[in-house]
């Protein structure tokens, strides 16, 4: 088995994602691996939260905020001497991560882990990283809990 050489980090600016970002920098140094950072405009959640109506201005503001979040992660990587490429997608987060993992031929996928709320446990909603592992067969999925 060859050494992993490509890491894909999903970054959304949350506390969990920031913790994952710090660990990815260490991992990329240790493996001498290339890192791609993916930020996703989660259109499903955004549209549902807006009552199924989202103006063009609101969409532009959300995309701008996502780009700022992506830039934050790229600046962190560059500040640690690690060149990284940034990617932005629109749509479902898990779909976007699995699609980009295939397009970029990533060996390792890294996501921050957020414990499910009481409502999510009650609703019996599956864990996103379980779905991600099922879709990204053959890739290592690493979930980083918040410190």
Summing up helix and strand content along with how strands pair, one would put the structural category as alpha/beta
Strand order of the largest sheet: 3-2-1-4-5
Q: Give the uncertain stretches in residue-range form.
A: none
**Shape call:** globular
Using only C-alpha atoms, the radius of gyration works out to 15 Å
Topology-level CATH name: Rossmann fold
Domain UspA: 6-122
Protein name: UspA domain-containing protein
Organism: Paraburkholderia solisilvae
Considering the chains and any ligands shown, give keywords for the structure.
alpha/beta, globular, 6 helices, 147 residues, five-stranded parallel beta sheet, 50% helix, Rossmann fold
């Amino acid at each position: 088995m060859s050494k992993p050489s490509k890491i894909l980090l999903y970054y959304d600016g949350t506390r969990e994602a920031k913790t994952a970002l710090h660990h990815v920098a260490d991992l990329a140094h240790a493996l001498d691996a290339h890192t791609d950072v993916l930020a996703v405009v989660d259109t499903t959640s955004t549209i549902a939260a807006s009552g199924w109506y989202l103006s063009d201005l609101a969409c532009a503001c959300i995309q701008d905020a996502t780009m700022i979040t992506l830039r934050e992660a790229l600046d962190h990587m560059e500040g640690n001497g690690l060149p990284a490429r940034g990617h932005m997608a629109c749509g479902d987060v898990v779909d976007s991560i699995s699609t980009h993992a295939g397009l970029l031929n990533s060996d390792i996928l890294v996501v921050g882990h957020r414990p499910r709320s009481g409502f999510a446990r009650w609703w019996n909603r599956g864990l996103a990283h379980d779905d991600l592992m099922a879709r990204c067969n053959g890739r290592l999925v690493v979930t980083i809990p918040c410190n």
